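note to self: dont lose this again. the chain is below, predicted strucutre after it. 287 aa total, dont forget to put it in the shared folder this time
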Amino acid sequence: MNRTTLLERRRIIVSDFRCTAGPGAKPFSEQYDSHSISYVRKGSFGCHCRGRFHELVAGSILVGHPGDEYTCTHDHVCGDECLSFFLDPELVEAIGDRAEIWRIGSVPPLAELMVLGELAQTAADGNSDIGLDEVGHMFASRFVEVVSGKPRKVGPDAARDRRRAVETALWIDAHSHRQIGLEDAAAQAGISPFHFLRLFSDVLGVTPHQYLVRSRLRHAARRLADDDSSITDIAYDVGFGDLSNFVRTFHRAAGVSPLRFRQASKGTMKGTMKGKRKILQERLALN
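---
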């Protein structure tokens, strides 16, 4: 079993698990020290827990409860891959800590959870502007809603809550060149990360990390158009820690590379500039 930690925050840890065991391999047992939900993205395995046996396939979820022992087997296929979220007690309490939910053992492939599991994998691969910790909160919250049968409450209406979301968004924009996590923004708002994520998303229509990334892109676009700093310097100045990530993210948003965007803004692209700018404007309008 190979484990790679993808993200480690105070309230949530995200790990990638890859097992190569196959039929005939000796079953192995493990014990969790925290609540967890593990999304099976590939393969299959069996699991004995609390006197029950569970068969999990791609799209299933293994649910971990602190102190319980889990014995895994591979009787049918070789190996499996899981994306696992380990949650601290405060987050579990905020989401819903009823024992019958967290001792269910497993959840079959359900569309409501599979779509978030795949979104989480996309975030883990670096192909989404939603934070991996944000998807973890969403995934855990949706899991509790589906298992308990209780839908989430209506979003905030209080003027104070809406002001809190707006003021935090302004703070994120002003400090977007820094490394800002969900917990940092929640601390600025003065509420827990779980409640802050819901509040911010309900009021503004985007997650805090999406807003952070888009603020960085906005500042980068202005810099590309206004000054002659190198693209590398601009990428790091606005908060991107990796040049290739900046280029990929900017291209996904603008439809053109940072270099082509700069050339279009300064009128240095070859060919008919009017036509080039029209193409750029059309691409930007679609994003």
